[in-house]
Every structure is written in structure tokens, then in C-alpha cells.
Amino acid sequence: MESQIVLLFFVLVLSIFLGVELISKVPSTLHTPLMSGANAISGITLVGAILASGSSGEWSVILGTAAVIFASINVVGGYLVTNRMLSMFKKK
Amino acid sequence: MNIEIIQDLNLNLLVNLAYIFASIMFIFGLKMLGSPETARRGNLTSASGMLLAVIITLLDQNIISFQYVAIGILIGSLIGYFAATLVKMTSMPEMVALFNGFGGIASLLVGSSEFISESDMSSFLSFAIYLTILIGGVTFTGSLIAYGKLSETISGKPYLYKGQQIVNTLLLLSLLIVGIEMIALGLSNLSNVELLILICSLAFILGILFVIPIGGADMPVVIALLNSFSGLAACAAGFVILNNVLIVSGALVGASGLILTNIMCKAMNRSLANVLFSGFGAVTESSSSKSEDQGEVKPINIQDAFLILEAASSVLIVPGYGMAVAQAQHSVRELGELLEKNGTEVQYAIHPVAGRMPGHMNVLLAEANVSYDVLVEPEDVNPTMETVDVCMVIGANDVVNPDAKENEGSPIYGMPIIEVDRAKTVFVLKRSMASGFAGIQNPLFFKSNSRMLFGDAKDSVSNLVSEFKD
Predict the structure, then answer these.
(1) Per-domain residue ranges for chain B?
(2) B404 Cβ under 8 Å from any chain A Cβ
(3) ipTM value of the model?
(4) Other CB atoms within 10 A of residue B64 CB
(5) In which residue ranges of chain B is pLDDT below 50?
(6) B57, B105, B254 member nearest A51 (Cβ)
(7) Domain B286-469 bears CATH identifier 3.30.450.20
(8) Residue B398: active-site member
(9) How many CA within 13 A on the CB side of residue A80?
(10) Per-residue model confidence (pLDDT) at position B288
(11) What is the pTM of this model?
């Protein structure tokens, strides 16, 4: 358990550095799609929501299902709206 | 070892490998968002990563019933689909704020569900749950308030009240106490459910009190910050269920939000603390009194404006949110094309805070079919501003306010601006002499090279377009 947590912290720290590197290179033209796209990624909490919603406890299921609904809105809406915006960016 | 255990191990390995693969797809997706040519594919890559993560999660053997999972995904996807398809591009900031909030509440619910079902918790797990609920709750209500301010269902004015500091301090203190009680002590007779409700309520109140004192003009910063929070909430939830894909993606989003927050703050020459805690409107009083004796504004009519534009060899268009409100972007694009046909070089200078979220103006112009390679940033145009024949300021105000350079008493002093006042001629398209979103007077209007083109921006630009066509 403890070694696993340490490992996850390691992953966390590396991801933050990676994120900073990646995002710094995005031009300001794309900041809105970047934001809505990143927002869709934060809907990854859907994974946790699915596990909770499919579990056994009554309250877990209720809370989990509510979480699934919200996270799905975030994921599906986020990716679709980002795609919609990006499809408008054209060069002559 | 019997076969079942080996199968379990294999499945577990498969699931984890798939999660790693999904993380890689998120990373590549974000990388591809770095250029307009690859951005769309990047988004698709990232979405595929999400699909993979969801499908592989469904293989988890702890899931005993798929019924509610399926119903939840169906309802959420439908709402998300319609919201994403129907939203207007001008309303994008509200939409992103709302989605952000949903991400936050989802993380909060995941944490809560874990808290209720788990009877024997390590203090690390309690701590992770506490953080998930706290960040998720603040993200949720904070985003709802930001949504309200952006859509103007609630006033965009900074809401300040007496004793604000005391209330905030008390709130933070109670959050701290409840946190310590939950993680370490367990002294009180509160059941898990009661404790949960208490923390959630405190987090919700904190989110509201956090955003409500911040003015509408500062919402771009707030959305960027809340975007970061929604990532951090997912990240904390990742520690709750010990899942690496949540941690990686949460951290990526957290970092992205922080960078955007930083960019926005720099564009306004203010520190994050100043944006969050100052209540912008409060300081504007002192500077506006001086602006009375700045001379008279010089109006111009459509015909004269047309003649000047026709003779210009370079035109710089500076759009602001007012252009989007007037829905003038399509006429503006048409005017730009006509000018180009006339042999004029046309560029669009876009200030980072021109819209109501980072990059908002670029999206609005892209929607109007303006090619993204004629969009330039202030640093690109300011050095050569003297050579620009005509600057057309359409619905922008604060981002072209020379007070930012000249008047030390101005609340926007020091903010990087598009220095249109140095161009040969400046047209300011404006409905009336009212001040901008930030409520500050603008001496640009009184400069000798400025001409005011009064009226609805869309009508004015359309009239210019028809002059060109005649």
C-alpha cells in the first residue's frame, strides 16, 4: 500500500512537469479549445464513477450513478464542443 | 496457483496496461493541440483514450451491476451531446465553466461514495477523500457562480460585504477542524454520513464565497483556475481509488489550467492574489474623475471612414467582446476580404483577454471564417504600430486603453495593451460613450488621431461593406 502511494506520487509529479511542458507550447489561438479539451480529460473521474456506480452498497450506487451522469456530460460535451470549435479553424 | 488467480492477474495487468495506454493518448492529444493543423486529430486521440479507459473499466470484476452505469452514461452523454451541439460560440465561456463544475461534482461524488462504503479507512485514504470533496465542491459551486456571472444571470459586479475576511477565515478554520477530525481524530459522535454532509456544505460555501467577490472582467482568470481545480479534483480522486490514469490526466489538466491562469494574469499585469482578493470595481473611482477635461471626441461618418479605408495600405482590426455581442464578426470578415481585394494588408490583433476566456476571440473569428494566420498577438504588432494606416477598434475598450501606459493612477496601469493610439488613424466603433466591461474611462477616444464611428458595430461595418460594394 505505502509503496504504491509513493509510486503514484512519483507519477503525479512527473505528470505535472509533463503537463507544463506540453501546454506551454500551445499557441494562444488555441487556448479555448485547449481549455475545453483539457476539461473533457478531467472527466476521467468517470472511471471512478463507473466503479462506484457498479458496486454493491446502496448509497455507493446512488452517488456513483450521479457521478457517472455528471462526468459523462463533462466528457461527451467537452470532446464534442472542442471538435466543433477546432473544425472551424481554417487557413486560406 | 490455480487458473482463476492467474486469470485475475492477467486481467489486472491488461487493465493497467490499458490505463497507461489511455494516458499516453491523452498526452499525445494535448501535444497535437499545439498546432491548428493537428489540433482536431489531437482532440480525437484524446477522446479515443477516454473511450479506451471507460471500456477497460467496464471489465473490472468489482462491478456487479451494469444497469445504473449504463443509465448514467446514457443520460450524461445525451445531455452532453445536446449542450455541445446547441451552444453558441459566444456562450462558450459559460459552457466550459458549467462542464468544469460537472467534472468537480463528479469527483466529489466519487470521493463521497468511497467514504460511505468504506468502513475501515487509513488516514491517507481519508485525507485523499477529504481533498477530493473539498476541491470538487469548490470547483462545482465556484463554476456555477462563474457561469452565472458570465451568462449575466447574476450581476458581474464584484460582490463585497463587510466582514468578508472574518467569514472567510472562519470558513477555512472550520474546514481545517473538520478535516483533522475526519482524518486523524474521530473524536466526535458524528457518523460518516453527517461528517460527509458537513464537509460538502463547507466546500460548497467556500466555492461560492471564493468567486462571488470577483468581477465579471476577471472571469477569464477564474475559469482558467477552476479548470485547473477540476483536474486537481480528478487527481485527488485518483489517490482515493489508487488509479494511475486519474492521477496522470488530473495532473495534466491541473497544469494546463495553471499555465492559462498565469498567462491571463500576465496579460492583465496583475498577480493571481490581486485578481482573487481585490474586487476590481472598487478602485476605479479615483481615475474616472480626471477624464472630464480630455477634450472632445471627433465623430466620423461612414462615407469618410470608407474613403480613408479605401486609401489605406494596411489595416489592423482590433476586435473585442463587444464585436461578438453585436454579432458583427461575419460583417467584419466580409469587410476584411473586401479590403484585401482592394490591395490592403489586413490583420487582426487579438489581446489575450479580448474575449471572456483565453482564446475566445480566436474561436469567434474562426467561426466567421477568418483564417487563423492573419490573427496576431499584441507583441507582434506593437513594434510596427506606426506603420499601420488604420486601426479599427471594434467593441474593444480596456485592451486598447493608453492609460495602461500613461496614467499611473489607472487601475489597469501596467497592463500590456495593443497600442493602437500610435497608429496613423484609429477608428473606434462604439455604440455610445459608456465605459467598458471593467468600467474604466478611455482617453484613446480623445486622441487627435482617433475618430469615433458611433452606432451598432454590425450596422456600421455592414454599411462600410456596402460602400465598398458600390
Answers:
(1) 3-281, 286-469
(2) no
(3) 0.95
(4) 10
(5) 280-292
(6) B57
(7) no
(8) yes
(9) 19
(10) 43
(11) 0.88
